[in-house]
Amino acid sequence: MMPAPKPAVITFRDVVVEKNGTPILAGLTLRLSERRIGVIGRNGSGKSTFARLFNGIETPSSGEVGIDGKTGRKDLRRHVGFVFQNPDNQIVYPIVSEDLAFGLKNLKLTQQETAARIDTVLTRFGLAHLRDRFTHQLSGGEKQMIALAGVLVMQPRVIVFDEPTTLLDLCNKRRFMAALQELEQQIVVVSHDLDLLQGFDRVLHFENGTLCEDGPPAPVIAAYVARSQC
Ligand SMILES: Nc1ncnc2c1ncn2[C@@H]1O[C@H](COP(=O)(O)OP(=O)(O)OP(=O)(O)O)[C@@H](O)[C@H]1O
């Protein structure tokens, strides 16, 4: 494992998101500098909307999101990677290596540098055998790992995951969790799978577009479970 870089400081200042006049997130002010951050809450509580703000896929209706004091959308895009729940939303090219090279085009790397970055990530996660495969022929677990690889080649400081294990079977879920453990990047994971968040540094619990609990995993998860008796 590479040495962990200093975590970024991510700030939300009075962030409001509204859609068609309906508030989805209401006046969120937060400072996040932990390495492992989990996000939980009922369906429709605003978790995905919150997650998408980190790298500018979603923009606030008012307020500001920043990373290390920089609030431009370009800064967020450059430093924060996003792994979707469904890798089909992320994988666009027919061959794995082409797909991984896609995001790197903007960085104007040489062909050799591009190939080296791709090979390093694939090798590290035991995916080198997938390099020349057709992306549409990959299994769900393989696709999710390639979607993660596509983010890792960009060398972001922070990676946000929106329910990354929902489509995975038990073995692939375990593999994916092991890969998460190994990442030196700061990670933010939205999940209904509370096991995934054990050992995290901080968990945020959303309810109706507001942050209702914020703290270490054990008490925040216990309070969420207690509230969710159905
Ligand atoms: N473009 C939109 N227009 C109107 N309402 C929206 C839009 N996007 C999201 N919403 C609503 O905002 C609320 C929060 O959605 P969000 O996807 O952030 O919730 P979530 O906590 O991630 O839910 P889940 O656990 O089901 O994925 C939901 O009620 C959703 O219907």
Task: Explain the overall architecture.
This protein has seven helices and nine strands, in the order βββαβαβαααβαβββα. With 230 residues, it is of the alpha/beta class. The protein has one domain (10-227): P-loop containing nucleotide triphosphate hydrolases (Rossmann fold, 3-Layer(aba) Sandwich). The strands form two sheets. A six-stranded mixed beta sheet has the order 5-6-7-3-8-9, with helices on both faces. A three-stranded antiparallel beta sheet has the order 2-1-4, with helices on one face. β8 and β9 (210-215) form a beta hairpin. α3 (96-102) packs parallel to α5. The longest helix has 14 residues, at 111-124. The radius of gyration is 18 Å and the shape is globular. The model has no long low-confidence stretch (mean pLDDT 93). The structure holds adenosine-5'-triphosphate (ATP). The site of adenosine-5'-triphosphate (ATP) has 11 residues, from α1.
